[in-house]
Amino acid sequence: MAILLEILFWFSIGLVAYTYVGYGIVAWVLVKIRKTIGKAFKQYNDPSFLPKVTLVIPAYNEMSCIQAKVDNTFGLDYPADQMEVLFVTEGSNDGTSEYIQSLKSSYPNLRMIDGDTRRGKIEAMNMAIKTITTPIVIFTDANTNLNQLVVKNIVRHFQDPKVGAVAGEKRIETEGSEAAAGAGEGLYWKYESFLKKLDTQLYSVVGAAGELFAVRTDLFGQVEKDTLLDDFIVSLRIAADGYRVIYEPDAYASERPSFSIQDEMKRKVRIAAGGFQAIARLSFLCNIFRYGLLSFQYVSHRAMRWAVAPFCLPLIFLLNLALYFTETELLSQPIYQWIMLAQVAFYLMAIIGYYLENQKIRVKALFVPFYFSFMNYCAIKGYFRYRNGLTSGIWEKVKRAA
Asked: Is residue 76 part of a domain?
């Protein structure tokens, strides 16, 4: 019995280690091999390549940030006659639609789709795509700021006919005394950026950040209206059709972290529920015999992050506890004692970090164990939310830090 517990214990640790560290190492090695044998992908950077694009901005009740978004959007370094800006404000009742309407005389390349009923972001995107005539569409959120060269840095990749989508970078703007959630989220996205660079060099990014991503307009397709992770579904379906999805770190959208842990938990749980929804809808991508490297990247980088590692963590703790009490030679083999001690210390730090954060006391040293535990806890909650049924693709807006 003890042997079976040991096998399961170390196997579970291996799965978690591979999910968070091992895949990055394997991808790095494979990228080095690709470069050594001369199979690196060609880089495109022709400054004269300036195709027409449409910037789509879903904006439901965004009056608090819409002026800053407008200023940021029309200040981008891209020819005005080559960029159309489309705001989708359907259902807004806080003056957002009226404000955008008042700007049309100042910006000839500005369009708006409005309406009385809120249908959600994915329906806004579905409506918008039907009206777009440019070959490239860029989606971005209303509460983010884009860097000036964002459009130029994105469109250069579409010189390659095998590139179907480009994923921008999400950056979290944190301050020195920022909450643990914000600091942890920022660290998480830095690590994600590193992995996305490897994904791009290996073959294709598996998913895009909804804050900023671009696609060839004719590849977008129609997305189910109850979809939670539209960016993920759209980009993976494009990749499944044989196109690469490129990560461009020099095209980025910056936003503030969630206002509180409670707000961040709502967001993370819904993202996780959307992840399980996506896994169900993209189950065909697990066929490595058909999709090759894309399947390997998808399972290793995404599916395991949502569906394997979060459930392994409590299992590891329970198995460690069982082995701690069933091992007959603890003094000669103290490894389970040390691992148990490390786990207890790690989770105690996470609990203390959560408690202090709720008291508005910020201790940066605690945000790694706190955010790691918090993220995986939200993933488990997201699974049960998915199992209990998702009735709507409309996001509940969370409050962002000022």
From this structure: no
- 357: Cβ–Cβ under 8 A, 6 or more apart, which residues? 179, 180, 181, 261, 370
Structurally, the chain folds into a number of domains equal to 1
pTM: 0.87
Tell me which residue range forms the domain holding 296.
1-40+161-402
User: Residue type for 349, please?
Assistant: M
Would residue 244 count as lying in a domain? Answer: yes
Residue 167 within a domain: yes
What is the separation, in whole angstroms, between the first and last Cα of the chain? 55
How far, in Å, CA of 237 to CA of 254, rounded? 26
Distant-in-sequence, close-in-space partners of 303: CB < 8 Å, separation ≥ 6: 279, 286
Residue 134 lies in a domain: no
Per residue of the chain (402 residues), what is the pLDDT tens digit? 678 888 999 999 999 999 999 999 999 999 999 999 999 999 898 889 999 999 999 888 889 889 999 999 999 999 999 999 999 988 888 889 999 999 998 999 999 988 777 777 888 888 889 999 999 999 999 989 999 999 999 999 999 999 999 999 888 776 655 555 555 556 777 788 899 999 999 999 998 888 899 999 999 988 888 888 988 999 999 999 999 999 999 999 988 766 667 878 888 999 999 999 999 999 999 999 999 999 999 999 999 999 999 999 999 999 998 888 775 554 446 888 899 999 999 999 999 988 887 776 767 778 788 889 999 999 999 999 999 886 555 555 555 444
Contact assessment for residue 161 and residue 242, using Cβ atoms and an 8 Å cutoff = no
